[in-house]
Write a structure and sequence with these properties.
Layout (H helix, E strand, L loop, with lengths): L1 E5 L6 H9 L5 E6 L3 H11 L7 H6 L5 E4 L6 H10 L6 H4 L3 E3 L8 H9 L9 E5 L4 H10 L3 E4 L3 H14 L1
Parallel strand pairs: 1-2, 1-3, 4-5, 5-6
Length: about 170
């Protein structure tokens, strides 16, 4: 499986990339970042090719899947582009769980939930809204949009329990 690394902003980009590189059934085909200087530097450090053109990366038919390592606020836009390019053919198999907050800069978590749960390829992926804004009104809205669970921050221990339960059901 050929994988594109989309973004190098995330603190764990190197670990995620190394995970792909260490997988005998996968290879990193290309690195892209919206900050070309940062992306090129990372690609050079990892001895990988870099392409500054996201449309060209997503249009490359040899790329089967992606790892999204952009800034969190860019995830919704990138996820939609990946979906449109059909690079998430195995997303339901490779993404076990989605966790979102309600408050995000470009797209709120409710909008993301609606997009995920209305997408044929992604709707079966369990989705948790994890936010300090969870109240009875927000809980109703999240349920209407299809969120599998909704938890208030900072209940990290409970989050882990809920994640385990949803993953066991899958």
């Amino acid at each position: 499986m050929k994988v594109a690394i989309l973004g190098t902003w995330h603190v764990h980009t190197k670990e995620y990339t190394t995970g792909v590189l260490n997988n005998p059934n996968a290879e990193v085909a290309v690195v892209w970042d919206n900050d070309a200087e940062r992306g090129k530097k990372f690609a050079d450090e990892m001895n990988l090719p870099f392409n500054a053109d996201l449309d060209a990366v997503l249009g490359d038919e040899s790329i089967d899947s992606v790892v999204i390592c952009t800034a969190t606020c860019d995830h919704p836009e990138i996820m939609m582009k990946v979906t449109a390019a059909k690079k998430n053919k195995t997303l339901n198999e490779s993404a076990d769980l989605i966790i979102t907050d309600i408050e995000m800069p470009e797209m709120d978590g409710h909008h993301l939930t609606k997009l995920v749960k209305s997408d044929e390829e992604m709707k079966e992926i369990p989705l948790i809204i994890f936010s300090s804004l969870i109240n009875s009104e927000m809980r109703i809205k999240g349920k209407q949009l299809g969120a599998d669970e909704q938890l208030s921050k900072p209940e990290i221990g409970h989050l882990v329990e809920v994640m385990d339960t949803l993953l066991e059901r899958r």
